Every structure is written in C-alpha cells, then in structure tokens.
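Now for my pick.
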Amino acid sequence: MTTFFGAVLFSYNLREAGKGKMAWPIVLCSLFWYKFIETLGGNLFPKYSLFPLIIANVLGAVILAYPLWYNLLDDVREYEKRPVWKPVLIFLGICAVLLLFQIAVSRRWFGE
C-alpha cells in the first residue's frame, strides 16, 4: 500500500501544480498496480508472501519517482517549502479508515 499512499501525495502535488486532471487516474492505477503485482507475485512465489509486497512497493516507487514525476512535474522549478502536517494527516486519516473497516469486518465475520 506504500505505492497507494505515494500516489495520493503525488496527486496532491499535481493539483498544486495545476495538473489536477491526472490526479485520480494515478491513484486508481496505483491500486490496480498493487493488486496486479500482489496476484502475479502470489502465483509465482506462493511460499514467499513478503516478496510480492516488496516488489510492488519498490517498482511502484520507481515508477512514481522517475517517469511520472519527470514527465508531469518537470516544468515546475519553484519549490515552496510547506509543513509536512497536511500529508501526514491525510496518511493517518486513510490508515484510520482502513483500520476501522478491518475491525468492523473482523467482528462481523467472527461474531464478536
């Protein structure tokens, strides 16, 4: 899911740079990317459950950092230093929603 959170922060940067049309496709592609690599890696390496996760995150980070960043944000030369609190709060909010969802589903399935 690291690629997903990276895509969310990348889409925030795209919106700030005035290229918000590309934000949602990148976030959705990151989810499909994660599921694709997880499924492919699980089929190729069934005994190594951590290996597909590592591959998905490393390759996703490389794709976000190099081809996408340099093609979509290469013309942005000015950098305004901003506090890190907004991305951290977005990350914590997404994690909280996912955690609450997991708790709700596990209670329903296990009858607690």
Notes: The chain has two domains: 2-81, 83-112.
